[in-house]
Amino acid sequence: MRYSYETDGAAIYAQSFAIIRAEADLGRFDPDEEGVAVRMIHAAGMVGLERHLRFSPGMAAAARRALQAGAPILCDAHMVSEGVTRSRLPAHNDVVCTLRDPAVPELAARLGTTRSAAALELWRPRLGGAVVAIGNAPTALFRLLEMLDDPGCPRPAAIVGCPVGFVGARESKEALWDAQPCPCLIVEGRLGGSAITVAAINALASRAE
Amino acid sequence: MRYSYETDGAAIYAQSFAIIRAEADLGRFDPDEEGVAVRMIHAAGMVGLERHLRFSPGMAAAARRALQAGAPILCDAHMVSEGVTRSRLPAHNDVVCTLRDPAVPELAARLGTTRSAAALELWRPRLGGAVVAIGNAPTALFRLLEMLDDPGCPRPAAIVGCPVGFVGARESKEALWDAQPCPCLIVEGRLGGSAITVAAINALASRAE
């Protein structure tokens, strides 16, 4: 064979996680958080990401409990819902993305916001106790905060809030951190995205490495 | 409204791309490449990514031509195929991911490799003239290089080679760059992933910003 490389998937994961644990500064994470941080670093290909992670107290434990109890995972983008590894889910949890629902374009026009944000209106019946995964749109995270400003709106069990980018991403994550409507995990600043968000969900769904 | 943020999708894109062009060092890219680099930086939320991008001469033009002529886009992961914006495709191009084909697990066992790599065997009938998008698995990129070592294997029109991670990612991208079986674009080192790869494809599919 002209190319020499590891072809065993389990060995690739084990070597990757060993490199991450050797290089990254994971000391401030508790055991529930550490495996989540490792998997997020893995998805980003970036040691140093750990410096930008913030877990609210008990977030990882709350999200794990909710998933084990069968909570649905509500995703802002299909790249997020598509990335969740179904075999890691502890209770055949539903993975939901409402972005392509036919009602969304008209909702977005009526609410004067993006389709990503408008799609969250369709989450309401399932929002109570859910695990929310926002990995793309800052407007979706802002919209969720507006919805949760209403005391009558059901509370999720936990929010992974990792929208990415240059306009609103940092601000929306800081707003989540300040509001703390429920346990949450953010990546500070511009970094974030679907891969990192999926990695957090996959780690919260199962401790298997 | 308690939160003040931009809710117009077009304005968000325009502001994001203006920030990127103000902050990133894009001088070494030609006009065909520049828009691709900007969109990749946008997806990563990371100015500085541009330092790690390498386009082979004429890659961006070759990929644009192929897509305009109707080339299929062959993706190594569903997060990649799911992220391609269908409305940007110039010729209703097919977006293909064979990872969940029922033949793949047995192929992987027979070939002694990962499912991500084995899935590429199913690309062969469509590989000639295709645009390849590898945004996840280093083993898939290595496998593609092995396939293309055979002079009888059809050549893609272009390869976006951006697997991510700590084991084999850097090595597989360097191997692609050294072999240059066709025009290619890589992100050097550990960085890469589905979001960055999708951004490159979306930029190559249309110049619209």
UniProtKB/TrEMBL annotation, chains A, B:
Report the residue ranges that make up the Cobalamin biosynthesis precorrin-8X methylmutase CobH/CbiC domain in this protein: 12-206
Involved pathway(s): Cofactor biosynthesis; adenosylcobalamin biosynthesis
Keywords linked to the UniProt accession: Cobalamin biosynthesis, Isomerase
Molecular function (GO) terms for this protein are: precorrin-8X methylmutase activity
Q: Which Pfam family, an example, fits this chain? A: CbiC
Which parts form a coiled-coil structure per UniProt?
A: none
Taxonomically, the superkingdom here is Bacteria
**Alphabetical GO biological process terms:** cobalamin biosynthetic process
Keyword DNA damage recorded: no
Please state which protein family the record places this protein in: Belongs to the CobH/CbiC family.
Q: PANTHER family, from UniProt?
A: COBALT-PRECORRIN-8 METHYLMUTASE (PTHR43588)
Record NCBIfam families = PRK08285.1
> What is the recorded name of this protein?
Precorrin-8X methylmutase
Species per Swiss-Prot/TrEMBL record? Oceaniovalibus guishaninsula JLT2003
